[in-house]
Structures
1.
Amino acid sequence: MELTDALLRIAADRGLDRVSVREVASAAGVSIGAVQYYFSTKDEMLAFAFRQVVDRTRARVSALKPAAGPRQTLAATLRQLLPLDARRLAECRVYLAFAARATTSPTLAAIQNATLTTIHEELRQTLASLPSLPSPPSGSGHPVLHPARDARLLLALVDGLMFDAVTAPTALPPATAAKTLDLYLERLLPGSD
Amino acid sequence: MELTDALLRIAADRGLDRVSVREVASAAGVSIGAVQYYFSTKDEMLAFAFRQVVDRTRARVSALKPAAGPRQTLAATLRQLLPLDARRLAECRVYLAFAARATTSPTLAAIQNATLTTIHEELRQTLASLPSLPSPPSGSGHPVLHPARDARLLLALVDGLMFDAVTAPTALPPATAAKTLDLYLERLLPGSD
C-alpha cells in the first residue's frame, strides 16, 4: 500500500516525529483527503503505521519456510523483529516512534499493551508446546523452561536487542544482535534444533 | 538541579516531544536565557536531559549498600534502570524520547552509541571478575558464562524490560519486569548470591 510505503520511507529518512499529513500525502502521491481517511492526527498516524508494521511482520512470519526444528523456527520468527535489512530497520523506527509516544498517549498505550499481551501469549503457547526436552541432571543448573516467564524474558530480550541495535548500531551491530539471540535460544533450548 | 527536575516533570506528565524552551524555563522558574545556556534546540535539550538521567542513575548505583553477593549486587544495580518508582519512570521516559530521536539525529546517535558501549564494557568487566563458579557437569546444558556476549545479552534484556514496562505496563507491570530480571540472573549465576 502506497501510504504505508511512504510512511516507512519517511520514518527511515528523517523520523516520524515532525512529519505532517500534507507531507505524507505528497510522498504517497495521493490527496490530503485520502490520507485523512486513514488518520488526521499525529497519534492516529503513528497508530496506523504501527498496525501496518505488525501486519507486515506477521505476513513475513507466515511465509517462512519450515525450519530444521523448533529452535530454528523460533529464531527465524524472532529475527523478523530485528533490524536486519533496510525494510525491517524502517519498521523498527516506526515501532520506536510509536512506543515513545505511547508513554504519554492513552490511546497508543492501549494498542501497545494489547499487542505485547498478544505476542506474549503466542510465545507462551509456542514454548509450552515444545516437544519435552531431556530432564536436566538434578542440581546441574540447567534452565527449566517456564513458558509464561520465559515468554516475558524472550519478548523483552528481542525488544531490547531491537532497541539497542536501532538506537546504537555501533555498540550493537544488527548482525551481532541476531547472534546474541541465537546464543540465548541455544541455552534455553539446548536439546533442540 | 531545577532545570533537570523540570524536564523530568514534563517528561512524566506529557512527554518531551512537543515541549518548548520557553515552557521548560517557565516550569523551572528561570529565564529563557538561563535555559539556552544549557540547550537551545530540541536535540540539545534531549541530550542534556539524557546526560542528567545517566548521572543520576550512576549516583544511585554508587550509593547502593553492599549486597549479599555478586548476583544481588548486579540485581540491585540493574534495578536502577527499571521504572520501579515515579522517579525512575520519568527517567525512562526521557531515555525513550532521547533514543527514539537518536535514530534520526547523528549527534544523539553518537551519545547513545558511546553510552551503551561504556555500559557494555562495565558489565563485561563485572561478569569477568566474578569469583569462578563451580564447573558445570559436562553436557549438562549449564550456561557457561561468556563475559562479552553475556554483557550484550544482559544490557539488551534490561533495555527490553525497561522498554516493555514503560510502553506497555499492563502487559509487563514494572514489578514483574524486576522479577523477570531476577529469574534471568539466577539462571546465569546459579552458584552465586
Note: The CA atoms of residues 165 and 176 of chain A lie 9 Å apart.
2.
Amino acid sequence: MPHRIVHMLRAARGGGRRPVMLAIAGDSAAGKTTLTRGLVRCLGADRMTAVCVDDYHRYDRAERAGKPFTALHPDCNHIEIMEQHLQLLSLGEPVLKPVYDHSTGRLVRPELVRPRDFVIVEGLLPLHTAMARACFDITVYLDPPEDLRHSWKIDRDCSRRGYTEQQVRAELTRREPESAAFVRPQRRWADIVVRFAPVPGRPGPLSAELLLRPTIDHPELAPVIAEAARHQRDTALHLRLHRDTDGRPVDALHVHGYVGSDESSIVKNALWDRLADRPGLSAEALGKVGDAGTSDPLAITQLLLLYHLLEARQTGEVRALA
Amino acid sequence: MPHRIVHMLRAARGGGRRPVMLAIAGDSAAGKTTLTRGLVRCLGADRMTAVCVDDYHRYDRAERAGKPFTALHPDCNHIEIMEQHLQLLSLGEPVLKPVYDHSTGRLVRPELVRPRDFVIVEGLLPLHTAMARACFDITVYLDPPEDLRHSWKIDRDCSRRGYTEQQVRAELTRREPESAAFVRPQRRWADIVVRFAPVPGRPGPLSAELLLRPTIDHPELAPVIAEAARHQRDTALHLRLHRDTDGRPVDALHVHGYVGSDESSIVKNALWDRLADRPGLSAEALGKVGDAGTSDPLAITQLLLLYHLLEARQTGEVRALA
C-alpha cells in the first residue's frame, strides 16, 4: 500500500521540516476559495502556500468539448500527477505545477511551487484517492445545500467568467452525475464537513454546521460554549452528538449566523486565545466574504482550521494511519 | 547523500520493472538529436521514451533577455525539478514535463511523459549534479571539436531557427564562458565520450573516437576487431589504451569514416550479432544523418549504445555506486 509509505516518510521527516497539509474539497462554487483566502491572509503568504488541484486538467476547454465527460471526471484530470505532486509537497519538495487559465480555458506555462510551513490544497478532487488522502494532516469537505451552491455558481460564472445563467444551469445539469459519482463521495473522508446554510425560520446571515469527526483531535469546545452561555441566552455555538448519514458518530457544531456580533465575538476571542502560535497572525483577515461582506460563522470556521494548522505545526504529529 | 537513496531505490525495484536510463549530454548542436533519433527509431517508439532536459528552462526567451546569464547557466534552469523528474522517471513513474517551444522561445503547456523500457535523456546539463547522474545506467558526452560544432550550429540555427550567421556567432561567444563552466565539465562523468571529427590528411566522412571508461562493462571488442582485420588491411576499428586528459586510463576506440562500407559492415554485423535482444530492432534506422546522409561511424556508435541499453535491460544491473 504505497500511501502507507507516504505516511511513514512524512512521520520520519518530523514536524519541524515538513509542511502541514490541509485539503479543502468541494464542488464548483461551494466556497473553497472564500474559505482559503482568509486562512492565507491570516497566516501570511510567506508562511502559506495555496494550490488548486483543478489545475491538473488533462484537456483544455476546446479538447473537453469532444469528450464524453466533464472536468469533474477523474479521467479528465492528471490524477496520478496530482498524487505525485501532493506527495512531493507533503515531503517539503517543490513541484512544477501545471496551470489552467480559467479565463481562456487553456493550459499554459507551469509554475514552480515551493511548499512553505502550511500548504492548503483546494479543488474538486483532492481526496479522490487513498494516495492523495495520505498526504494531508487535516481534510475538509464543503457541503452547502445544492440550491445554495447553484445560486453561488450562477452569480460567479455570470459575473466573472462571462457565462449566461442558462449556460451555467445547463452545465450544472451536465455535471450532476459526475458530482454524485466523484465529488460528493469525498465527504466521507473529511475530518471536518462544513455546511453553510440558512436556518429555517431564522432570517439573516448564513449559519454554519461543522461535523467534527473523531479522526483528528478537535479543540475542547465545551469551555468556549460555556463562556458564551454565561453572557447571553441565544449562544452563537452549539455542540451536539450526532449520527451521520452513514451511521458513524460525529460531533455537530452549530455556529449561528443570526446572533449579534457581540455574542459571536466571545466565541471568536475564546478560539483565538486557544491558537498555538498567535503572534504574527492577522485576525482582520477572517470572515471576509467577497469584497465587502463579513460572516461570523465563516470566521469561526477559519479559526477552527487555524487551530488545527497551528497544532499540527507545533506538535509535528501526523494523523493516525488510516 | 540523497543520490545514494536513488541508487538503492532503483536497485530495489529490480531490472524488469524500472526503465533503463541513458544520458546524452553535450553542448548546443553537438549532435545529441542525431544520435538519439537513430536509437529511438531502431528500438521503436513503443519501447523508448526520449526527453530533452533543455525544456526545464526557468525563463522564456523574452525574460532571458534581461538576465546576466544565457540558457546554459544552471540558474537559468529548474535544475531541482529536472533532478526530481529524472528520479521519478528512473523509478518508472510518469512526470508532467515542461515544454519549451524553440520556434517561439516560449514556455507552453506541459506534457505527460510515461517512461517506457528505455529512456534517453539528452540536453545541455543532464549530468550537472550528483543527483541527476545517480539516475542513469549509461552516460554519454558528445565532444566534437569546437570549430566543427560551431559550423553545425550555424547551419542549423540559420536554416531552421531563423537566425543570421552573425547572430549565431555572437551567441556562441556570449555562451562560451558558461559552456566552459557548466557544459564541458560534464565530460568527466561520462561512461562514453564520443568525438566525431575529420582525421587529418584523410578526406571523406567524419571518423569517431569513442573513449570507453571502465565505469561500465563494455562489450569485448577484440574479437570484432580481429574479424575485421582478417578481411582487409585498413580496418574500420582500432582500440588503443589511452591516458585521458585528466590522467585516468581509458580505452580509445577509433571508428574510421574513410574505410569503405564493406569493411564497416563487418564491424556493424559483428556488433549487431552481440546485441542481447535483436528481434524487433530496425537496423535501417542506424547511422542516418539529416534527411539523406548516412555515417558508418555514427551507426557503430549507436550499435555500441544499443548493446549497453539491451544489456542493462536484460541483466537489470544498476551501475556501481559511484
Note: Chain A touches chain B through 18 residues (CB under 8 Å).
